[in-house]
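Q: A reviewer asked whether we had any structural model of the full assembly, not just the individual parts. We don't, so I'm hoping you can provide one. Inputs are below.
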Amino acid sequence: MGWIGESVESIRSIQIRQLITQAVTFGLIVTSALIIWKGLMCITGSESPVVVVLSGSMEPGFKRGDILFLHMSKDPIRSGEIVVFNVDGREIPIVHRVIKVHEREDTGEVDVLTKGDNNYGDDRLLYADGQLWLHRHHIMGRAVGFLPYVGWVTIIMTENPIFKYILIGALGLLVITSKD
Amino acid sequence: MHSFGYRANALLTFAITILALICAIASFTDSFNHPTPLAQVKVLNINWFHKQPNGNDEVSMTLNISADLQSLFTWNTKQVFVFLAAEYETKKNALNQISLWDGIIQSKEHAKFWTHTSNKYRFIDQGSNLRGKEFNLTMHWHVMPKTGKMLADKIVIPGYRLPEEYR
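A: Here is a predicted structure for the entire assembly that you could use as a starting point for your response.
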């Protein structure tokens, strides 16, 4: 009877070891993704280094689903730059072009007005009630680079969450079932 | 080891890597282009010039803008965004940049143009400093690539002056 117990023991130990290996692999994937994201945050100085364009307000330059790389440096904001900004009371950041800048002599504070290339008027209608200008703290970063189409993946995933679950499930299954 | 999933994964990874590399190279080739754009702007008329009830000066002007931006276009150029900004200093502000006119150029054929226009965006100062104010008109352009890094530059045209009196 002893050999049965022994073999059960050995099978169990193999499975546990495999389980742990898989858990570690999975953990490594998640943490390396996190490291890349946080590393980009440090390098670019922007709290979200990559954004997906969600509206057509910057067409024909940026279409829905394009990806923008942001950079936030100490350099002053100048007109013509494409900035990503948050307006108080709105959750989704907006990507538009700066058309007017007024920079204070004494404090260096800036008043900025933006407009979407494809919009008829400026953005004062989008700002909070009574807000005429954007200030430095509204701005999350300026767009420095551009990659077309790639953002469609995230748009599809946020609009049809089922794709997200299928993708996550499939990847999870792949990680769990893969045996090197 | 050589399962379908494994091969599909390897193929996909390889394809994406190559694509990313090609995009990076396409963007890099832009740095070999040394453009020599030209721009000329004339202020033809001051249409009106007054102080708003809230105390800010506003001016409306007619501009004649001609430019040749053909040399900015390369095979990786999707569009050129060009705009003309009035730039001046006041006691309160170290820099005021006010976009007066802009345009989107999508092909090299349309990059040599002239236009006769009044200012598209309102020229309003923060305060009442515009009488007799000297200002620069600066032609800025932002090149949007098909992929990769965005480029920008400008031509500063100095020596414009607003009238001494409201009209």
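A: Points you may want to mention in the reply: Chain A has a mean pLDDT of 86. Strands of chain A lie at 50-52, 67-71, 82-85, 94-104, 110-115, 139-147.
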